[in-house]
Amino acid sequence: MSVVFVVDDDREWLGYYERLLDGYEVELFRNGVEVMERMREEVPDVMILDIMLTGPTGFSVLHEMQSYEDLGMVPVIIVSSVGIKEDLGEYGVVRVFDKGEMRPEELLAAVRERDGWR
What we know:
Elements: E1 3-7, H1 11-20, E2 25-29, H2 32-39, E3 46-49, H3 58-65, E4 76-80, E5 93-98, H4 104-114
Parallel strand pairs: 1-2, 1-3, 3-4, 4-5
Helix pairs in contact: 2-3
């Protein structure tokens, strides 16, 4: 079963992701510090990451991941209310979704497309 780490400081969104990703092993994190500590123990197959987090931002998480060879390979899907225009492919970002416009089937398709990368 593929492991998906989800990082968002909004409890409602975390619940939404957990329901949507039924069939995956989902681990939920409310901040960047928690997820970076966990990734020292297990590398996920896919990460869903919000940018505006309490504490270190999603950009900080992306930057930290790149300092590790294995974590730098994890496909990251950003789901955020912050409009992101820059190309973040060098940080492992494979898709960027706007929280207000994303449809559930789009996110599921993006996760399915990337969940077997290893």
